[in-house]
Structure of Glycoside hydrolase:
Amino acid sequence: MVLDSNWTGEYTRPGPRLYPHQWSWDSAFIAFGYARYDQKRAIQELRHLFDNQWTNGLLPQIVFDPHFGEYFPGIDFWHAECSESAVCVYKTSGVVQPPIHATATLHVYRHGVDRPGARAFLEEAFPRLVAWHDYLYRERDPENEGLVYIRHPWESGMDNSPLWDAIMLRMQLRSHEIPAYRRVDTHVVSPADRPESAAYDRFAYLVQLFSRLNYDEARIREDCPFLVQDVLFNSLLCQGERDLAQIAQLIGEDPSPNEERAGKTAGAVNRKLWDEEHGTYLDFDLATGQPIRVYAAAGFLPLFAGIPEEQCARRMVERLKTTGFDLGGEGMIAVPSYDPLGFGFSPSRYWRGPVWINIDWLLMRGLERYGYEKHARGLRESIVNLVRDNGFYEYFNPRTGVGHGSDLFSWSAALLLDAMSDSWW
Ligand code: GLC
């Protein structure tokens, strides 16, 4: 079984060779799967991540296992110890990933067989989750809009998406600004599936900028060329706040601050990120003050958080059916991460078009939430068939189903387990 083979005793590796450390949102997705059959492990998984939270609340994208030295960018490249908030947990990266952890924590409780144990975990996790969301609203929402920004493509979880192309193009680097580094990923899987080196130069440049500024968010905000209010990140934060309110209620805390923040974020997503012309949501580039007019599947994921009004949701479903995403049609095996008719689409390159199970799973739960039963069922079948016929890959060609990237990929297994079980809402 994939999850068992990737379990280290402390956390679950996303994939056996390509991803040997702990990744933040992977662990949350993995916990959704464990919740269905091994509550103890689901709790251990999340606890190991929370144990490496920075004192300012930042929940790191990667917790490194120092035994795997062959990784780029590793502990020494991040210099997390430059931040006064990371002194005790220096073995982490210095960026974050989308905040789906409160949702995962509540899910572990709801499906836990050992109720007292699961409740005790809610009490333990609550202050961690509050600190995590507080960090985001405090440090990443300087104008108090209810929308937080990300400052590196890796923070979106969709590292190499065409969403970031315009910003990457604007980053004209001179040779001395590109840090010396050696990639490992392209030795493990085909370089044709992975980001190009010009993208990696920019990823590395941003990391070096953060460590040079000692991870001081106010200074980063002034200098960083990448500052984006991302639809998926803010949607998951909104749902996370809704779930944190539920957790608060279950353990006898006041849910109203979290309910208020969820409402504020939902309102801001609708006001600022909705694209009336195309019936979807768009990321917003804070450096240019303009929306990013790139049509990715993530633009439909406010459905997962119950953000759009019914009428907007209807337009979104229409859009999914009539564009290259081909929801419910015969052309695509499942919903691709980027519109196949979009400029720069690739069926096999990392985040530039392949099907990712986590994106389709979020969309499936979103469609279900709004009562689009037939489409939700169709997507569920696509997810199950895709993995059954092609294996537990990291991502899949949307036309042929051929798997790419890491094999034995943990969240493909974990979310399959959840997708096969009952409706959520
Ligand atoms: C890649 C993905 C990211 C994921 C990580 C580990 O970097 O883009 O979303 O968390 O791999 O699986």
In short: Residues 14, 19, 23, 25-26, 157, 159 surround alpha-D-glucopyranose (CB under 6 Å). The longest helix spans residues 115-139. Residues 23 and 62 are 5 Å apart (CA to CA).
